[in-house]
């Protein structure tokens, strides 16, 4: 029992369908609102070419119409990893149901197969046996040589649900449902029960009915259930039967409270449902029972704790048969009259007047129609109704047939509706639906967002981009929700596109851009990522402030560093980094610069890791090696901040009479110049690139050397530093640092770490001498980059402010398709890091999108679904033995649906199909 709990219920969060006249749910709903009847009429030429005999066409009872589902021979076998042979042998019902199941997840913004929690599958198929199996496979000379079990597995009703569970990696209950025409609504009920029972978090309910062949008419029998003119006239005085058709549909269901919490868009809420059977209380096994239907209706209303007075619309089974319609309305009257005496307040309709009777899929078509009616506040017209069936007392009932597209305004309470479905054999289903709760208004997140799109092929990605461009012109979804759904609401494939955008117009421009589909797709074994940790002089005032505000993981790591450092700097580390009131020059003071830079780099390590981005190899420049050691797991945060804070304090205390300069020339030239000058106070501090060498030493000596190089035409640049780092002037600080480092015990590296100080790989933890020499020795960045190149690094990501190492690194190694990516930029920190994440995604790196979106989770919106690349997979029956529209089985053929007491069958006979008939001859002629 749901009772009066407003948060209880099952939300319809995803819808996908392919119905006559509609390849998707949006077109289906538009057709319904516009009163479109999607029944196709055939010419004699059409039917003759389909194999219908001229004799049948002359039969006045032969109806030249059908409710068609286009492209039943089309399937994306490659997407679902089926061989062409498997695809050809598979019932189109199972193929289409697979695609629609996938689309329902994408419509819901739920990534397929990624949930660690169980998801159930409840589906059913049309036909006694697969009409494709009966009509095509036994009579084709076009069959593969050996079919084995493929035709059995691909056509049997035992396998559609478990096939979906296998292909979509869904681990909840997987049940095939077969209750004739009520199959799909019964599947919805069972799915809801499984969710209520805790057997699964979500459940897929679906059905497929595909009649093979399609492009044929049918024979109408007087008193039968088939319409004599191809139109369904539900509840009308002229109603004489229905017309059967093909269709496929699926809905994704989720506990209402979970759907609201997870930001799902909700079409409608299932408040209650019930199923039962008529038992023996009816005139025949194939007849329906008003009493049985009424019991199911009353039970569902009680479960939903809903009064019939509040229901404004009922989507009826409404087949348009002489007997069925009055029985159904009688059942509704009985159920409603238990609680209300009002008249004429509840609209009714039947989707069968639009698309025909889809048999096992009929209940889903009705449910989808009703869900959209609740969502959009419109009741579509029920077609072909002029005068009421005289056996139905509408005037004394609560009901009226809705014949126009009627606005359904919201009132004080949510809109309520119901759907009725019944099956041959007496299984009834009734579902009570409620308007979805209003979504909480959210302001659009400020700043840039990352949009992602992927496919299995280049062509599919381009088609997807085109679909999104079209969709953007008409949808009003927030940009933040679009980007959230594109990342957290999709499974991601190898061919990828990404864009960092701040406005929907920017997204449109990015999709239109010439390089929209440019992507580098590399096998897993070929991708290698290097983290490059920048050194001193890359810092800027308030570096990391934007990420601190927007990214909790980054903020927590910065706060942790500030807590560890405590008062040792004289000012809180967070003030130095983030306060707008702090002296901006503090960030350039060595005592503050080094711990502040390390804290930012630690925050970036944590942030990238939370997104699933971890390096294969690490390398640091100068003081950046402390963050490298942390990333490699050699030291703890506490150990390194303690060591680094002392290093910065010791260096800050040294005389400020040094200078550093970048000389844009090679090591040999600079070394020769220093030796020729004969100055022991100057040393090479860094070998940053083949033609970029940094010198460090006494200010006067460095100034003199600059003048000497400039006379030789060599460009020089004086660096803004407080001390002559990596020079002999650092010796007093280095000696003390070595003594302190002797008390710090490290561990073996968890990553490949190449030292730019010792120019070697680091596996074991550095000893105290390493950190002493590190302050004195030159930074051998060029050697480090060349070593990384030898390991096959394909992406270089700078961890720290700016892009200094990216500029230098490109000068050290060949390009060959490498990516150079930053983490922080003064021009926009979030934009920079999102752009780099997008580039890594494009190049095949897997991103933890749930973690990425956790700080600012949006709503899941209905984006365009995957563009399946269809090919024809079909077994052609030989022309001489084509069926003519009935699902024939043996000599008797198919039994015609009829309420008459006598059994009637229909079949097409030929000597090619039944060769033994040629044995009965009179005067030598087969008779």
For the report, how would you describe the main beta sheet?
Answer: 11 strands, mixed
Low-pLDDT stretches: 1-6, 879-889, 898-902
Q: Give me the side-by-side strand order of the main sheet.
A: 7-6-8-10-1-11-18-17-12-13-15
Count of distinct structural domains: 3
How many helix segments? Answer: 31
Mean pLDDT: 90
- Please state the overall shape, judged from the principal axes of the Cα atoms: elongated
CA radius of gyration: 37 Å
Assign the CATH superfamily of the largest domain: Thiolase/Chalcone synthase
Class computed from helices, strands and strand pairing: alpha/beta
Q: What is the CATH C-level name of the largest domain?
A: Alpha Beta
Task: Tell me the CATH topology of the largest domain.
Answer: Peroxisomal Thiolase, Chain A, domain 1
Determine the oligomeric state from the structure.
Answer: single chain
Q: How many β-strands, per DSSP? A: 35
Kindly estimate the percentage of residues that lie in beta strands according to DSSP.
Answer: 15-25%
CATH architecture of the largest domain: 3-Layer(aba) Sandwich
Helix content: 25-40%
Q: What is the end-to-end distance?
A: 65 Å
């Amino acid at each position: 029992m749901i009772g009066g709990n407003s948060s209880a219920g099952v939300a319809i969060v995803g819808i996908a369908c392919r119905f006559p006249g509609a390849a998707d749910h949006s077109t289906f709903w538009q057709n319904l609102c516009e009163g479109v009847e999607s029944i196709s009429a055939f010419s004699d030429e059409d039917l003759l070419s389909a194999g219908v005999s001229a004799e049948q066409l002359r039969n006045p009872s032969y109806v030249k119409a059908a409710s068609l589902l286009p492209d039943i021979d089309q399937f994306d076998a490659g997407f679902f990893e089926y061989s062409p042979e498997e695809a050809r042998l598979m019932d189109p019902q199972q193929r289409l149901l697979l695609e629609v199941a996938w689309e329902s997840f994408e419509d819901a913004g739920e990534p397929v197969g990624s949930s660690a929690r169980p998801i159930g599958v409840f589906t059913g198929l049309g036909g006694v046996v697969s009409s494709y199996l009966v009509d095509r496979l036994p009579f084709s000379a076009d069959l593969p040589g050996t079919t084995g079990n493929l035709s059995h597995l691909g056509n049997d009703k035992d396998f559609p649900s478990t096939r979906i569970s296998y292909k979509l990696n869904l681990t909840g209950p997987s049940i095939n449902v077969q209750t004739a025409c009520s199959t799909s609504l019964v599947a919805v009920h069972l799915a809801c029960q499984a969710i209520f029972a805790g057997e699964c978090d979500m459940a897929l309910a679906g059905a497929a009915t595909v009649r093979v062949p399609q492009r044929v008419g049918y024979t109408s029998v007087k008193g039968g259930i088939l319409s004599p003119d191809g139109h369904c006239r539900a509840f009308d005085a002229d109603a004489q039967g229905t017309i059967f058709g093909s269709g496929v549909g699926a809905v994704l269901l989720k506990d209402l409270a979970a759907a609201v919490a997870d930001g799902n868009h909700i079409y409608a809420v299932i408040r209650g449902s019930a199923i039962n059977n008529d038992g023996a209380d009816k005139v025949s096994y194939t007849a329906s029972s008003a009493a049985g239907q009424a019991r199911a209706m009353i039970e569902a209303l009680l479960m939903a704790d809903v009064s019939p007075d509040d229901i404004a619309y009922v989507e009826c089974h409404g087949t348009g048969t002489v007997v069925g319609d009055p029985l159904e309305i009688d059942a509704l009257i009985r159920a409603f009259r238990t609680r209300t005496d009002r008249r004429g307040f509840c609209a009714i309709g039947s989707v069968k007047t639009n698309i025909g009777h889809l048999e096992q899929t009929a209940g889903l078509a009705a449910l989808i129609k009703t869900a959209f009616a609740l969502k959009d506040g419109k009741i579509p017209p029920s077609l072909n109704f002029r005068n009421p069936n005289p056996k139905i007392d509408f005037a004394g009932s609560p009901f009226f047939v809705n014949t126009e597209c009627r606005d359904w305004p919201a009132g004080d309470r949510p809109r309520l509706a119901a759907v009725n479905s019944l099956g041959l054999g007496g299984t009834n289903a009734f579902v009570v639906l409620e308007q979805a709760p209003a979504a909480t208004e959210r302001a659009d997140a400020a700043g840039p967002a990352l949009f992602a799109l992927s496919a299995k092929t280049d062509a599919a990605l381009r088609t997807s981009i085109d679909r999104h461009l079209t969709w953007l012109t008409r949808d009003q979804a927030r940009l933040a929700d679009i980007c959230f759904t594109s990342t957290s609401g999709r499974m991601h494939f190898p061919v990828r596109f990404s864009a960092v955008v701040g406005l929907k117009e920017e997204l449109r421009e990015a999709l239109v851009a010439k390089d929209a589909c440019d992507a580098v797709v590399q096998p897993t074994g070929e991708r290698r990522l290097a983290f490059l940790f920048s050194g001193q002089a890359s810092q800027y005032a308030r570096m990391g402030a934007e990420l601190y505000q927007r990214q909790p993981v980054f903020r927590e790591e910065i706060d942790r560093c500030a807590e560890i450092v405590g008062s040792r700097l004289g000012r809180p580390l967070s003030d130095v980094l983030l306060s707008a009131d702090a002296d901006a020059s503090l960030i350039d003071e060595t005592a503050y610069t080094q711990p502040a830079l390390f804290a930012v780099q630690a925050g970036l390590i944590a942030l990238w890791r939370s997104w699933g981005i971890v390096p294969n190899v690490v390398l640091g420049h100068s003081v950046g090696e402390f963050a490298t050691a942390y990333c490699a797991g050699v030291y703890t945060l506490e150990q390194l901040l303690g060591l680094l804070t002392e290093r910065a304090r010791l260096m800050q205390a040294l005389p400020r009479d040094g200078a550093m300069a970048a000389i844009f020339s090679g090591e040999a030239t600079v070394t020769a110049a220093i030796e020729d000058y004969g100055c022991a106070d100057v040393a090479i501090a860094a070998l940053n690139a083949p033609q970029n060498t940094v010198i460090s030493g006494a200010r006067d000596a460095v100034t003199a050397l600059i003048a000497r190089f400039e006379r030789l035409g060599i460009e020089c640049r004086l660096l803004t530093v407080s001390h002559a780092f990596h020079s002999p002037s650092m010796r007093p600080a280095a000696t003390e640092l070595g003594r302190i480092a002797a008390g710090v015990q490290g561990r073996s590296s968890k990553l490949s770490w190449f030292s730019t100080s010792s120019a070697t790989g680091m596996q074991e933890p550095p000893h105290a001498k390493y950190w002493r020499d590190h302050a004195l020795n030159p930074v051998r960045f060029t050697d480090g980059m060349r070593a990384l190149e030898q390991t096959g690094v394909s992406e270089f990501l700078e961890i720290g402010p700016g892009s200094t190492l990216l500029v230098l690194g490109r000068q050290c190694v060949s390009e060959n398709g490498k990516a150079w990516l930053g983490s922080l930029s003064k021009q926009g920190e979030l934009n920079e890091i999102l752009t780099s994440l997008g580039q890594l995604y494009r190049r095949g790196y897997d991103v933890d999108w749930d973690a990425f979106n956790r700080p600012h989770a949006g709503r899941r919106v209905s984006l365009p679904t995957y563009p399946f690349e269809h090919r024809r997979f079909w077994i052609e029956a030989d022309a001489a033995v084509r069926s003519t529209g009935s699902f024939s089985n043996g000599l008797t053929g198919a039994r015609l649906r009829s309420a008459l007491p006598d059994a009637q069958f229909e079949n097409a006979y030929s000597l090619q199909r039944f060769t033994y008939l040629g044995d009965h001859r009179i005067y030598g002629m087969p008779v």
